[in-house]
């Protein structure tokens, strides 16, 4: 197809604009990286800069001193994120399936209950009492997986809409005529046809689990169950304490030399790195899953 002069100009302009927007989005991350390799005194004196006055790896050396703790925290976060995302997708998709079926008598009642949970919640205190006193999940991995993150009403409705708008009723009826059970229809037909929306919801769930620190704050007291986010918060609190007045008077000049600002930037890099690795493999499903699953009906 031959392009006109105006179309070629617009094509070039759109490419240049996208490159510029990509660079603008990438610049803050580059600033964080450079700040993590900047000497603490230089950060305090000159602030953040893409071209630091003096480079230093003190922040990573300080974090390397607790390498075993970070490895365990990474393991906890990976385990919780994997299990939570897998279970969340299974439960969410199974709940959305009957809601999408026109022959299910109570689909509207179920949809109302799901939608109701998006508007109201019991609050922190009742939730804490429920999970710790009655379900006894305090100081367990279940405390990092189940409360607040395992299911979400928005995701249920998103997958339900995808089922309704993209899986023909005739296909389900054909499977029923052939003698397929509901479980067989769900696992052999609905799930394979729903990869885009499941990948999209799985990405959102995975991000929520990876970045979560509230559940550990409420329900976890044993350090071996801390994920990477909680471990980073503890490390930052330790540095702030060591640089406080009482600790500084005991430690002398050593407390003032702690790379607190650079460590913050290094922690941000460590926390976001796995997401940057996983996201490119799922981004092709993101737009399609959101657009198709969000169609009202």
TrEMBL record:
Where is this gene product found? Answer: Cell membrane
List the PROSITE patterns hit by this protein, alphabetically.
ABC_TM1
Which portions of this protein are annotated as coiled-coil regions? none
Q: Which InterPro entries match?
A: MetI-like, MetI-like_sf
Query: How is this protein named in the record?
Result: Carbohydrate ABC transporter permease
Q: Which domain of life is it from?
A: Bacteria
Q: What is its main location?
A: membrane
What SUPFAM superfamilies does the annotation carry? MetI-like
What is the organism of origin for this protein? Paenibacillus cucumis
Ranges where the ABC transmembrane type-1 domain occurs:
74-282
Record has Transport as a keyword? yes
Q: Which UniProt keyword terms apply here?
A: Cell membrane, Membrane, Transmembrane, Transmembrane helix, Transport
- According to its record, how does it sit in the membrane? Multi-pass membrane protein
**Pfam families, per this entry?**
BPD_transp_1 (PF00528)
Give TM segment ranges.
12-37, 73-97, 109-129, 141-158, 190-210, 262-282
Identify its protein family.
Belongs to the binding-protein-dependent transport system permease family.
